[in-house]
Amino acid sequence: MLKQSFSGNLIEAGCDEAGRGCLAGPVFAASVILPHDYKCDLINDSKKLNEKQRFELRDIIQRDALAWAIATADNTEIDQINILNASILSMQRAVEKLQLIPQLLLIDGNRFKKFKEIPHQCVIKGDAIFMSIAAASILAKTYRDDFMHKIHLENPNYSWNKNKGYPTLEHKRAIKKFGVTKYHRLTFNMTEQTKLDL
Q1: What SS3 class is residue 44?
Q2: How many CB atoms lie within 10 A of CB 122?
Q3: Which of 31, 127, 162, 176 is the most buried (most CB within 10 A)?
Q4: What is the pLDDT of residues 134-144, one digit of tens each?
Q5: Cα–Cα distance for residue pair 39/42, rounded to 1 Å
Q6: pLDDT, tens only, 28-80
């Protein structure tokens, strides 16, 4: 079972995002506050779960969490401020929407910007270590998948129902053949996309 807490006594919100490496669609973020003594052997890094498991766990997490929230930054914002900054912004937006104010933010990854006066702790591969971050990863991933299925119906040529906007060969061939849509990110330079705007 993943770790229940970083601090042991603070109200902790796990934060994670989904869709950073995509060519299309928003980046989705989630923030989740679980009860202190919460136990669930099934919760894990969303990448280690299959789709059925993720959606089943989404219902469990939403039922059991003290608070949870979803937020996004769309492809236009990603193009304006880059994917790293958009990922951080979407996590901050998710924290802002929580019905309970956290005393500590547990952030998946190694980069974040101070949000209000709430202390934060970055944890590399945190979604495989802390339950609250793993729960956030599951919510972010499933809500983003739902969105990509929805916009796939508008744009079936790109197979977003399967690739979810990631740069698969099929997706790249579709861009070459049909061009870009209003959902595509137009900034593909990864050096610029990983600069932190301080």
Answers
A1: coil
A2: 14
A3: 31
A4: 999 999 999 99
A5: 9
A6: 999 999 999 899 999 998 999 999 999 999 999 999 999 999 999 999 999 99
Q: Is residue 47 part of a domain?
A: yes
Distance (Å) of CA 25 to CA 30, 73, 107, 150, 152: 16, 9, 22, 11, 10
Tell me if 16 sits within 8 A of 137, measured CB to CB. Answer: yes
- Number of Cβ within a 10 Å radius of residue 170: 11
* Torsion angle, alpha carbons of 10, 5, 106, 163, to 10: -140
In a domain, 5, yes or no: no
Q: Say yes or no to pLDDT of 198 above 80.
A: no
Report whether 152 contacts 164 (CB < 8 A).
Answer: no
Residue-number span of the structural domain to which 113 is assigned: 12-192
- Residue 7 in any domain: the answer is no
Number of domains the chain is built from: 1
In terms of pTM, does the model score above 0.70?
Answer: yes
Residue pair 91/76 in contact (Cβ under 8 Å)? The answer is no
CATH of the domain at 165: 3.30.420.10
Inter-residue contact 18 to 140 (CB < 8 Å): yes
Instruction: Say how far apart CA 13 and CA 188 lie, in whole Å.
Output: 31
Does residue 69 lie in a domain region? yes
Name the burial class of residue 11, with classes exposed (0-12), middle (13-18) and buried (19+) by CB atoms within 10 angstroms of its CB.
middle
Which residues make beta-bridge pairs with 29?
17, 71
